[in-house]
Amino acid sequence: MTPVDWVVIILATSLALIFVTLLAVVASKGMRAALLKAAAGVMLRERLADMPRRRNGARPVRVLRVPMRDGIALKTEIYLPKGEGPWPTILVRDPYGLMQYFICNILVRYGYACVHQDVRGRWGSGGEWRPFTNERNDGADTLNWILQQTWQNGRIAIIGESYLGITQWAIADQLPPEVKTLLPGVSHGDIYEMVYRNGAFCEGVMGVWSYSLFKPPLKALAAAREWRQRVAGQFPALDADPRGFGASWQAYREFLMHPERGDPFWQSPEYSALRDSYLGVRVPVLMVGRSNDFFLAGMVRTFEALQTRGQSVFILAPGDHGGVAGAAKVRQPYRRYFSDVIAWLDHHLGTAPAPAQLRPGYHLYVNGSDIWRHDETWPPTAEVETLHLDDFTKARACGGGSLERRTPVQPQSVSFDYDPRDPTPTRGGSFILSPAVSAPAVQDQGRDICARADVLSFESAPLTENRLLAGSIQIRLLVSSSAPDTAFTVKLSEHFADGTVFNIRDDISTLRLRNNTMHYLAYAPGEQVELEFNLDPIVWRLRAGSKLRLDVSSSNFPAFNAHPNSDALWSSVAQPAIAHQTLFSGSLALPIAASPDSEKSGKRVA
Q1: Among 208, 228, 256, where does a domain finish?
Q2: Of the residues 43, 64, 179, 291, which has the maximum number of CB atoms within 10 A of its CB?
Q3: Is 603 within the bounds of a domain?
Q4: Same domain for 93 and 40
Q5: Distance (Å, rounded) from C-alpha 430 to C-alpha 296?
């Protein structure tokens, strides 16, 4: 690559890092520097390695205002290569105002016209900001406008991650034939699953995201600190200062008021079309997901249901939503993002042969083995091993309870008190958007959290051999509460022989919206009910000598709201109550696939 290429790439990376740090909470300059250094390393390693030599220069960027069907004009930038067109064309629809630098500035140098558009109500575009609900009509109108331009050659792709991926799912079932492929990363179309988890509000995702969107760029770093101090954990949540949210307040308030999946709010034509559009996809799709991303389960479900499943590729890389792996040592990160994107585009928008490194199916990073493998289908066939919770009276200590293959003979129970004003803190996991609000992805759990009085902890005997978890882990708990509604949480970890404890998966459920129900279920205080947690799928190598540890509590804050222990609308409760929680029994169903030490799939150079 030429020096000019690297200047463009470094500039693009620097601008993209603004987005990475928009939500960062900084306690000190040292922490700020560490976060920026870590984020820069991730962006450079995972995005820009092994780039092919550029093919074109770029013309000056044209800025237009493209009218939508209702007359609202959206700011649209046109990046064209030097030389003779027309060109295969890329569309990027973006609420953050940055991805033209990080996508269009790169792809235009590989012979692609690139259209970057600020979505409605953001940056240079007109109209009202209503997240998710305008992208279907506006996306279709923008594609129709592109097809009228002389510089496009009738072969179009749409690309982008997170909200930029959601803009693709919004129109995925109504694509004109000129759109040949979609490249949506870390996203799917079921917005309810981004906002709620079994009735628990995903505060660490939607709260900080909504609060930060309309902050001035120079105050972006302070925005997340403000959210954590002024909004997170406030009772009632609806009493947050609307001025802090700016134009995001109305949408955020609506999210707070609609925790039921079956609520008409979530079943509106806009949300229903976005949720179901993947069923109508008729083009190959390149999806990039991450092991500790809150979108992962929905992405796998979406990929498996594609009509073009046999022509599509799912790359499952390590890390959280932004690619940060946390404390896990990842020596084989996903370095080929743009290299793979260009190879994919060259094939689907051009005449290049199908890239060998992107054969259909899953390209998976195996956590704990630090290798990549390819599977035609996933999760692979696995044997289910069941462990039962036992030794309840010892569960108040870290790992004091036990996980046993045999079913306990005698009835048991253990109780704890849960105080919403003193919730169990989040440490790692998939439900935090900012790595500075809470430690990201995989983290050492230590012994402080499991030693809390509101945490019950169970541990298995040491494993006698390496095992491979591959798929969704199912946890069942039989519980009761003194409250008319409350929440229970689970966290499964690997306790290594050296004492380190890495979280594998965690989850939460309220009682009245348990088990993925569409509407509130009746619950009487003291009633015993079974909670079923279907943890997000995982590929994780368990080491011989390690133990499995399951921690049970009632909060995981600020990843999720601290439930107020009331059957009123959670966000309206001003005075939360202390609840007496009881656990009567439980089990883990573990999907165990072939041992990673015996698999012959080989490494993929990632």
Answers
A1: 256
A2: 291
A3: no
A4: no
A5: 9
Within-domain flag for 407: yes
77 and 151 in a single domain? The answer is: yes
Q: Residue 30: its pLDDT value, please?
A: 46
Q: What are phi and psi of 286, to 5 degrees?
A: -110, 110
> Over the stretch 28-66, which tens digit does the pLDDT of each residue have?
444 444 444 444 445 544 566 678 889 999 999 999 999
Burial class (CB in 10 A: 0-12, 13-18, 19+), 219: exposed
Structural domains of the chain, count = 4
In a domain, 41, yes or no: yes
Do 407 and 547 have their domain in common? yes
Residues 509 and 585 in one domain: yes
Query: Six-digit token pair at 317?
Result: 């890389």
Task: State residue 216's pLDDT score.
Answer: 74
User: How confident is the model over 384-427, as pLDDT tens digits?
Assistant: 999 999 999 999 999 999 999 999 989 999 999 999 999 999 99
From the number of C-beta atoms within 10 Å of its C-beta (0-12, 13-18, 19+), residue 428 rates as: buried
Tell me what percent of the chain is helix, strand and coil, each rounded to the nearest 5: 25, 30, 45
Claim to verify: residue 504 and residue 587 sit in the same structural domain? yes
The set of long-range contacts for 11-18, using a CB threshold of 8 Å and a minimum separation of 24, is: 11/101, 11/105, 12/101, 12/102, 12/105, 12/106, 13/40, 13/43, 13/44, 13/47, 13/48, 13/102, 15/98, 15/101, 15/102, 16/43, 16/98, 16/99, 16/101, 16/102, 17/43, 18/98, 18/217, 18/220
Partnered with residue 89 across adjacent β-strands are 113, 156
Residues in CB range of 415: below 8 A, 6 or more apart: 580, 581, 582, 583
Sign of the Cα torsion 351, 353, 358, 360 reads positive
CA 593 from chain centre, in angstroms, equals 24
The domain spanning residue 151 has which CATH number? Answer: 3.40.50.1820
Select from 205, 596, 165 the least CA-distant residue to 437.
205
Q: Which own/partner pairs from 13-17 qualify as long-range (CB within 8 Å, at least 24 positions apart)? A: 13/40, 13/43, 13/44, 13/47, 13/48, 13/102, 15/98, 15/101, 15/102, 16/43, 16/98, 16/99, 16/101, 16/102, 17/43
Distance CA 520, CA 263 (A): 10
Nearest to 317 by CA among 297, 344, 339, 337: 337
